Amino acid sequence: MEVLPADEIMIITKHGVIIRSSVSQVRVTGRIAQGVKLVNLDEGDLVTAVARVVPEEEGEGENGVAATETDQVEALTDE
User: Fold this and answer.
1) Which residues make Cβ contacts (< 8 Å) with residue 1, sequence separation at least 6?
2) Residues 50 and 73: beta-carbon distance below 8 Å
3) What is the pLDDT of residues 31-41, one digit of tens each?
4) Could you tell me the strand order of the sheet in which 47-53 lies?
5) Phi, psi for 42 (deg, rounded to 5)
6) Nearest to 19, CA basis, from 28, 29, 8, 30
7) Averaged pLDDT, 18-34
8) How far apart are the first and last CA of the chain?
9) Which of 1, 19, 55, 61 could bond to 67 as cystine, CB 3.0-4.6 Å?
């Protein structure tokens, strides 16, 4: 999924934790070098979805609500 500095991302976990963060707040050097941790997961929790939140002026949807692009994340488990 490609994101722009003006975008936000939402991360949703199996246990119902939702994190919304501005892409501009994520350090670019961390992304390039070794990655960036965006969410701490409790034992047994998994990331179930990641969504790109598009600014209203780019992707305004019905009733002025910003549009989202959602990518399902395949969870890797030992089950």
Assistant:
1) 50, 52, 69, 71
2) yes
3) 567 777 888 89
4) 18-22, 8-13, 47-53, 68-72
5) -75, 160
6) 8
7) 79
8) 27
9) 61
Q: 47 near 26, Cβ under 8 Å?
A: no
Query: Rounded mean pLDDT of 19-31?
Result: 80
- Residue 56 structure tokens: 């209203």
- In the block, tokens 């910003």 appear at 66
> In this predicted model, which residue has the larger pLDDT, 12 or 63?
12
Query: For residue 13, which of 37, 34, 35, 44 has the smallest C-alpha distance?
Result: 44
